[in-house]
Design brief:
- The complex is a heterodimer.
- Chain A is mainly α.
- Chain A folds into two domains: 93 residues, Rna Polymerase Sigma Factor, Chain: A (Orthogonal Bundle); 95 residues, Arc Repressor Mutant, subunit A (Orthogonal Bundle).
- In chain A, helix 5 crosses helix 6 and helix 5 crosses helix 7.
- By secondary structure, chain B is α+β, with helices and mostly antiparallel strands.
- Chain B folds into two domains: 119 residues, no CATH class; 208 residues, no CATH class.
- Helices cover 40% and strands 15% of the residues of chain B.
- In chain B, strand 4 and strand 5 form a beta hairpin.
- Chain B is globular.
- The chains are: A mainly alpha, B alpha+beta.
- The interface between A and B is large, with 65 and 59 residues.
């Protein structure tokens, strides 16, 4: 299969369909990435802007990387930052429980809701860059090196941030309790 | 295996999936943007018989306009058709009987073409007279989007005289790109070809100059071949090609296109020349010979008009490519150049508030690669 890098190269030469193919390959992942961070409605509004920004900056794509997904996540993150900056201050209160509004089909399942609320609260307390690395790895299934590409930072820095994020979560009493619960349940099975 | 922090956080992974129409809408937004800024390509619609397979700019395309396909302008068909059309190209050579050139074939690069914009030729002569040795060994073109779709977006483009290209979004980035040898030029990047065509055009025969500019980046000979066929032969070949593309057109929710008229093909040829010339002008603007050549070539296109203007108090020329030339329902494209040096200053598509609107400014300077590498520019 033609690599993303080669398709981007072709698009730079005027082959618009080549870039569309890159988009088609990753639109599901990038759409989900956005939705996890701002919810479906805003994600749908932002996705087109992400593609346009990616198209306009494709000349800066480092074609030594065959796969473009981390780069596209990076473009999406930049767009998200603009989005967050444009929001009223009251919207920036980390109301993490609303991240997946309209999605959870079983909101009445208290136990799950409680677990998620605890985790979201814990995530909200992390430093932004720690949270970014952690969620890129946990949600987007990226390697730490690819997460570093998204965030334009050295891989070593991303590794350190991931470690810090894990330690912060582990040291949070509510999360530690959840880990204990999960692992004790597993052991008893 | 124990559950760890990452496993726990993964539980928050689920999110409401975007609706299929949202993905389609996002792609549509992208297509509109792709058709907008810069001397952007018109939408690509179908394969044209007689085209050679090629990478990049050479991808097959034919544009349609004045055929009621405005909405379809956003529908593109990829380069995958290349192999099919390549086969047609071979068949065309083997089976078609040469026909007299179609009437009104002045758009054909081989036909003798008159200069229709003497003002451009005059400016070309002024540039020639004032040309001196070029300083530096590269041109830095700083491109800024001042209007939609992404105001404030800045691109640093560095074109070296030896044919390398570096791109970045800021000064620091362009230095880093040079330091890291991130030369993006390749067989797929045709800046050297259009610039070479422009340099030839500075002093060469205008008919040949048009031909070189036309073929600098594309398999555009397809238009000329079609133009030379008799109407009956053109219709037969076109319909045969449309039949081959039926399934693909259906998948794209498109429909077969009518046979292009002579005027369609003339505009296709002139549009290619316009597009390549403007690329040459922006990419090779640091070289007066390139500017001179571009102006001479553009002087042959009837659908390009020239008007005196002022920009920031300086005398400028507004070169307007009429919608008829752009086709596919796209608006006029206006390139503003210095009336004294021919240096490109801006490129505007359409008008604010309307679809396809974009406004891009250019700042061109000559630099040395060593200076850029050291951050001194």
């Amino acid at each position: 299969m033609t690599s993303d890098a080669e398709l981007i190269g072709r698009s730079l030469a005027g082959d618009g369909e080549a870039f569309m193919e890159v988009i088609c390959r990753h639109e599901g992942a990038v759409g989900a990435y956005l939705a996890r961070r701002v919810g479906r409605e805003a994600a749908e509004d932002l996705l087109g802007d992400v593609w346009v920004a990616a198209f306009e900056s494709r000349r800066t794509y480092d074609r030594s990387f065959a796969g473009a997904r981390p780069w596209l996540f990076g473009v999406a993150l930049n767009r998200l930052r603009r989005y967050w900056r444009s929001r009223p201050a009251e919207d920036l209160v980390p109301d993490v429980t609303s991240l997946a509004t309209g999605w959870d089909p079983w909101p009445a399942v208290d136990e799950r809701v409680d677990t998620q609320a605890v985790l979201r609260a814990a995530l909200a307390k992390l430093r932004p860059e720690e949270r970014e690395v952690l969620t890129l790895v946990a949600w987007e299934d990226l390697t730490v090196a690819d997460a570093a590409r998204v965030l334009c930072m050295p891989a070593g820095t991303a590794r350190r941030l991931l470690h810090q994020a894990r330690m912060a979560l582990r040291n949070a009493p509510e999360v530690a309790a959840l880990l204990t619960d999960f692992n004790s349940v597993k052991e008893s099975l | 295996m124990n559950v760890d922090e990452i496993d726990l956080v993964s539980q928050l992974k689920d999110a409401a999936p975007l609706r299929p129409e949202a993905y389609e809408q996002a792609r549509t937004t992208l297509r509109a943007a792709m058709a907008g800024p810069g001397p952007a390509r018109r939408p690509e619609l179908v394969a044209v018989p007689g085209a050679a397979p090629a990478r990049g700019e050479g991808s097959l395309r034919a544009r349609n306009r004045r055929r009621g396909i405005g909405a379809l302008g956003k529908v593109g068909i990829g380069a995958g058709i290349g192999a099919v059309a390549a086969g047609v190209a071979v068949a065309l050579v083997a089976t078609s009987t040469p026909q007299p050139a179609a009437p009104g074939g002045s758009a054909s690069p081989r036909a003798k073409v008159p200069v229709v914009n003497s003002q451009l030729v005059t400016l070309a002569a002024v540039i020639k007279a004032s040309s001196r040795n070029l300083p530096g060994n590269a041109s830095l073109v700083i491109q800024t989007d001042v209007g939609a779709p992404s105001p404030g977006n800045v691109t640093y483009n560095l074109f070296t005289d030896s044919g390398a290209y570096y791109g970045a979004n800021n000064k620091k980035g362009i230095t880093a790109a040079v330091v890291k040898h991130q030369n993006l030029a390749g067989s797929w990047l045709d800046a050297r070809k259009v610039v070479a065509a422009a340099r030839y055009s500075a002093t060469g025969d205008l008919t040949t100059a048009r031909e070189r500019m036309l073929n600098a980046t594309s398999a555009a000979k397809q238009f000329e071949r079609l133009l030379r066929l008799s109407p009956a032969a053109r219709k037969k070949l076109w319909e045969k090609e449309m039949a081959k593309e039926r399934s693909l057109l259906k998948a794209k929710h498109a429909w077969p296109l009518p046979v292009p008229t002579v005027k369609d093909l003339q505009n296709d040829i002139n549009y290619e020349i316009w597009y390549n010339s403007i690329n040459a002008l922006t990419e090779g603007a640091g070289n007066p010979q390139v500017r001179e050549g571009v102006l001479r070539v553009l002087s042959t296109i009837p659908e390009v008009t020239v008007a005196n203007a002022t920009t920031g108090g300086r005398p400028t020329l507004a070169l307007t490519a009429a919608p008829a030339l752009m086709g596919a329902g796209l608006p006029a494209q206006v390139v503003t150049i210095s009336a004294r040096t021919g240096m490109p200053l801006s490129l505007v598509n359409g008008t604010p508030g309307h679809q396809y609107y974009s406004d891009t400014t250019y700042r061109v300077s000559r630099v040395t690669l060593a200076g850029v590498r050291a951050g001194r520019f």
